[in-house]
Each structure stands twice: as C-alpha cells, then as structure tokens.
Design goal:
The complex is a heterodimer.
Chain A: H1 15-48, H2 53-94, E1 95-96, H3 100-106, H4 115-126, H5 131-140, H6 152-178, H7 181-188, H8 193-222, H9 225-229, H10 235-244, H11 249-279, E2 292-293, H12 296-326, H13 334-368, H14 370-379, H15 387-413, H16 427-449, H17 454-462, H18 467-496, H19 499-504, H20 512-521, H21 525-553
Parallel strand pairs in A: 1-2
Chain B: E1 3-12, E2 15-25, E3 30-34, H1 41-49, E4 56-61, E5 64-68, E6 71-72, E7 80-83, H2 95-100, H3 108-121, H4 137-149, E8 155-159, H5 167-184, E9 187-191, H6 195-201, E10 204-209, E11 212-217, H7 219-224, H8 229-234, E12 239-245, E13 251-253, E14 256-258, E15 261-262, E16 271-276, E17 281-283, E18 290-298, E19 302-308, E20 314-320, E21 330-335, E22 339-344
Classes of the chains: A mainly alpha, B alpha+beta.
Amino acid sequence: MRIEQTVSARDAPGLRHTTHHRVFWLLVAILIATPVSIVLLQIGSAALAPRSDAWAHLAEFVLPRVIGNTVWLVIGVTLSAAALGTVLAWLTAVCEFPGRRFLAWALLLPLAIPGYVLAFVLVGMLEYSGPVQTLGREIFGPDLAIPAIRSRGGVILVLTLCLYPYVYLIARNAFQTQGMRALEIGQSMGLSIRSGFFRIALPLARPWIAGGALLVAMETLADFGTVSVFNYDTFTTAIYQAWFGLFSLESAMQLASILVLFVFVIVVLEQRLRARADFAATGSQGTGLGRLRLGRKSAFAATGFGFLVLALGFVIPFCQLIVWTFGSGSEFDARFFGYVWQTLVVASLGALLTTVVAVCLAYAVRNRGGPARWLARWATLGYALPGTVLAVGVFAPIVTLNNTVQELLVRAIGPGAPQILLQSTLVAMLLAYLIRFLAVAHSPVESNLLRITRSLDENSRILGVSGWQMLRRVHLPILRGGVLAAFTLTFVDIMKEMPITLMTRPFGWETLAVRVFEMTSEGEWARASAPAVAIVLVGLIPVITLTRGSSRVD
Amino acid sequence: MWIELRGVSHEYGGRRNLVDVSLRLEKGDIGCLVGPSGAGKTSVLRCVAGFEDVCGGEILANDRVLSRPGLTVAPEHRQFGMVFQDYALLPHLNVLDNVRFGLHALARSARRSRALEVIEMVGLGDVLQSYPRELSGGQQQRVALARALAPRPRLLLLDEPFSNLDVELRQHLSAEVREILKHLGITALMVTHDQAEAFAVADRVGVLRDGRIEQWDAPYNLYHSPASRFVAEFIGQGVFVAGQMTELGRVRLELGEMDGELNREFPAGTDVDVLLRPDDIVHDHDSTLRAEVCGKSFRGSDILYSLCLPSGDHVLAAVPSHHNLQVGEHIGIRLQAEHVVVFPRPRED
C-alpha cells in the first residue's frame, strides 16, 4: 500500500515553480538596470535633437575651450597621479626607511578630503591676500612673484593630491604580492636594482597601475567642485552653466552627451584592462622576507618626500580648515546644524535605497545567473557617469513623467486636479545617487553573498529551516557585515557628492556640500570651512577601515 | 527506515544524467555509491535528498512516495540529515550553535542537552565555543556529522564527506563514522570516489557509470563476482588475459588451467577474457612457470610486481615483501584462485 502525502504546491517545487522563480529574478535585474538605461537614452536622444540658439552660443564660445581644458586636465592629472601613486607605493611596499610603517597608511588620508575642499583651502591660502603671500611679502618685500594658484597647474596639483591614493592603493597591493621577488629575479639575471625595477617590477604591476590611473581619469572627468573653485571651465561646469545660466536643459544634455563619449572610451579601456589583470594575477603572496634598505641619503629623501605629500594632501589643509572653523567669520552655529540635518536625511535615504537595491541585485545574480549577471554589470556602470550628466539625465525624464501624469490627472478629474511636482521632491536626487553609487554598494554585498554557498542553503533546508527562517538565521547574519559596509560607503559618498545634490535638490534644500559650493563661489573660505570639516571627518571613516585592512597585510 | 529507488531518471540542463537507477537500502544499512567523476553519484544523493526533481521512476521510504515525476516532497519535510563535501558549517555560529541549528522541533530546554550529547559522541566536547574557522578539517567534519545526526534523521546522506581530509585521517574517520552509524542504527547513503573507503564503511556498494547502476551488491560480491567488465576494472586491481573454455568447464590460460568457481558458464571452446587479481598469482619457487619482472612497487607488507609473460601479456602479482627482486630478474609463479571471473572476449573489428 502506498500512502501519498498531501503536498502543497510549495512543497513540490515542480518545473513551473522554478520557472516563475527565474522569471521573477530576471525581472528584478531588468528593473534595476532600467534607470541607467533611461538616463543614457535621454542623453543619447538629446544628442540627436535639433540644436537650439543656446547651443550655437555654446559651440562658438564655450566648447573649444572646454574641450581643450578637459583633455589637458585629464591627461595631466592621470599621468601625475599615476607617477606619484606608483612611486609612493613602491617606496612603502618594498623599501625600508624611517617612518615607512606610518606613511604606508597615512598616505591614504587624502582620500578623506574631497577635491573641492582641498581646492578652496589651497586657493584661500595661496591667493594674493592669503596667509602665504602676505607672509612672503613681509619677508621678501612687495615685489615677490608667486605663480598664480588659479591656473591649470593649480587644478592639476589639487586633483593629483586628491586622487593619487587610487593608484597608490592598487599599485601597493601589486608590489606587495611581488615582494622582493621581482628584484631578486632581476639580480639573478645580473640586473641592477634600478633596472630590475624598470624592467621587471614595474611591467609586472603595470595592469594594476593602469587600472588605478583609469579610475583617476574617470574621477577627473566627473569632477565638478574642484574646477569650479578654480574657475577652470570643463564639461561639468559647462553643463551646469548651460542649465542654470542659459536655462537650457537641452543644451546641457547635448554637452553631457559629448562627455559621455569621453567616459565611454575610458570605461572600455578599463573593462579590457580588468580582464587582462585577472589573467595576469601573480598568485602567491611574496615571501615578505626583507625589504630594500635605502642608503642614508635616499632614505632621508624618501621620508621627506612621503611627509611632504602627506602635509600638502592632508595635514596642512586640515589644520587650515580647523583654524578657519574656530576663527572669526566662521559659520559654526544653528544654521550649520540645519545643513548637517538635511545632509543626514539625504545621505541616509540615499544610502538605504542604494543598499536595498544592491542587495536585490546581488540576489538576482545569485538566483538567476546568466543574463542577470550581464544586467548587473550594466546597472553598476553608473559609477562611471559624472554627477552632472546624471543630474540632467535623471531630471529630464522625471519632468516628462511628471507632465504626463499631470495631463492624465487633468483629463480624468478636470481643471481642479491637484498639482503635482515630482521634480521638486527628493526623487530625482535619490535616483541619481542610486545610479552613481550602486556599484559602491554592490561589491561588498556581492562578496559577502558569495560566502553563502549553495550547500549552506541546502543544509539549512534539509534541517527543516527554509523560507524566511533561512533568510533570518543563515543569510542575514552572514550578510550583515557587507550590508553595513555598503551603507557606510554610500552614505559617505553621498555626503561628499556635490553636483547631483546641487543640481537636483528641491528648492531651499541645503546640504553641507552645497553650502561649501555656495560659500566658495563667493570666496568666503572661512564660512565654507565648518561644513568642510564635517565632510572630511565623516570621510575619514571609510579611509580608516581601509587602512586597517591594508595594515594587516604588513 | 528503508529507502528504495525504483527506476529513477533525472535530467540536468536538458541532459539525462541518471537513467533507470534502482537500489534498496534496508533499515540500518549503510550504502555507498562509487564511480568515476561525472557518473551521477551526487545526482542520486541530491534526488534522494529532494534537491532535484526526478523525471522518471520513484523514490520511496517506508512505503511513502518521496519523489516521482511531478511530485517532490521538499527536503525540509523529509527529516533526513546530510553531510556536505564542504561541510557547509555556518561561519557565524560556534560549534554548539551549529549543532543546535536544526533542533527547532525539540523543546528549548532539550536542545542544548541533545546537542551536547551528539557533540560528545563525535568527540568535540572541548571545542564547544570555537568557530568553524578555528577548527581543523577533521574537526569541521565532525561538527558537520554531529549537526546532521542531532535531529535523529531517518536517513543520513553523506556527499564525499572525507574528500578534503588527508589519507590517514580519512581512514580513521571513516571507520569511526561506520561505528557511530551502526551504534545508532541509522540508515545511510554515502557518495565517494574512494573504493577503499566504500569497502570500509558500506554494507552495500553501488557502482555507477554514465548515470546507470552497473551493480548494487555487497563489497565481497563486487570484488569477486563483478557483473560487468567495467565493474571488474573499476573495483580493485587486476588485468585481463586471454583464455579459452575447456571441456571440463575450466579456463585454459597461458599460465595454466584455472579450476576455481566461475562467475558464469560458457560453452567449451569459447574465447574469453579472464580477470587476474594480484592475489590470484602466488610466488612459487619450484614452479616451472617463470615470468620476468618488468616493474615493481613497494607497498610495505608486500610488493606489487608487474610481470611479463613469455607471450608478452602483463599480469600483476602481490608477493610478500621479503622476496625482493630487481627489474629484469625472473620469478616462479603459480595460479591460485578460488573465484574465476570470465567475460566473453569482445569481437575485434
């Protein structure tokens, strides 16, 4: 006799059930990949739209200078940040000199200072009426000639000091895995240390250095705050001007489409490089036995150079900020806490949204694989899109959507229909954050999710723990760290973010970054410093986490 | 609980990777599946566990249908235990909590004492509070076993449970696991690629090949009367040599006539292949039959010689290790087999 159990549909995951499940997760992935696609479609269609008068003005007076400025800036910053990052990475990873251990992590500190903050501090310090020139004139007399800081060289210097850590971090990892091995191979073949570096160590680390340099290029293209302080016109400032100066969203999008082309080139290079770097991975950790001991003179030079970079990139600007914050003319009062509050609100909301979406995306990839994996790569490409591009690319579709809905409402209810104004809510801003920072949140979540193997799930099911119980007792505890990291990283990034917030915020919404922009564009350095200090302090959180991770390797 | 598979078939990615698999395990028996990689061993286990749907046949336990086409009782409703190849320990829980994980059916107060009981049984009493990453591979394996046993499963499934351990530990643990399972009277089905392990643990062993069961039998029978050439070659060592059936129902070889028990009958004069195990050939100083040593491998208590017969055929012989000959020397040998395994010679064309 055979007794068949009564089984509900849930108990018998037949083929149909599995198919539904797969379709569901595919839809989730498609949904998540939609916003970035809409933005790119919007920008693309604007590029093909007929040109307006505003465009004629831009093409004649703005475009030639902007293209030149942008190209020179990207080349200058990328090359100098790559060189600086590589040298510092080599020194701290392989050589031995006084202060090496300290510098190894301290050289990451400039990551905490956004470009626009470093820019206004240096400009404030070095301009004609600033403390440096004043002191110089007192000592050397009134004819002292210091090259103007507000120049192409100045912007390149500031962005280099802010962005070299990208190269430094990656190149240091590469050199550390090589250890002394590369040099020893060279010596065994009769090469001097010097040619061993250039002919073995450097070529081995090249894919990583180049990867870091391309990130720097991407950030430089996206930069808005730094170049604004210097009044150095690039695509990002031109987009802002077109929209807020010429009131032509159309031409702003047309400018954005050209910028997207630049970005596209860099993304393609980066993706190709990444594939190659995976291939060239050298595997085992270097023996770590011994470091290259520098002679007295070179050791002194290395220490001095390291501390100089640290001083310029972090210590001096930070001290100056503190001095301004607690000096006269600072804005350290009730208004300040208002900005803090509004910043906390958008950063928390944005980080929460981005983290939740990142978790959904990671699960879609886990449960669907294949096409979902491609969609995830597409969705996380948003990190490459400059904030200004995202601002215009998100704003325009939302206006269209708003007007369509309004029209439908009026048609349905009549002229008494309620007014809706989506573009004056936080929606556009949050969507733009989501697109830009999804990659930041996705990677820690994904790497934690990989730790939940199929056998963990199956073990849990066979022990009778399934569904929500399994999510609560197995997945949540393992994912917690990654989710927390994702939230923190996006929170900090949103807090530092300037152009998206500036261009898509609801009227009267003032965050710390926006306040910094407003004050610096009026040359009120002291008034900008309190919000800047707050941004830097919060920015230190991920840097400290990062240095903990990297010092453990030491 | 007994379990039976009747003609089970399974598809994966549109490909049929289990075909008509039948086997039966009585209550308290330990079964073991062996076979080359890709033969479908793990698929059988996953179908029994309920992770995979079957597309033909049925799986029964105590007369209840667990799986048939269109119906799969979910794993969480089968009350089975499973030990995974990677142990699948929860990284955020210590040993005690890992073992307690599946004990939700018990009253809260009973959970701890049951967990402690099982942990004691596998000998982990002194690492209760340790986390999986702090344990050695063997200890992790024991935690996985304890966790699977704690809820008193009706059937225990083991998926290559010892494959990540070194050889010595593997032998030690497999003997220990058999003892524990026999002591508890638990029915178990294990997958392994190591036949020595299968022989050490199992009451019944199944040899799988390309998704089919070639033979499901006691270890002794697998070795001495394999059902197919594949099983004969896969289980144990040995080589096939050419022979011919005689009038008396014996087999004539180059080495002489064999008069052991035949695995099946053939008409006289049939050309056959005879399986010669290393222990079927013994060293005999006085034998007129001599073979040249063309390879040797020292195994401690004996030496496995590869011998070259005058005809050019090769055979293996296990000889006590004090007979230490060099390659190229000659050795006197004699056939001594109680079981004679014969297969019809495949037609060459």
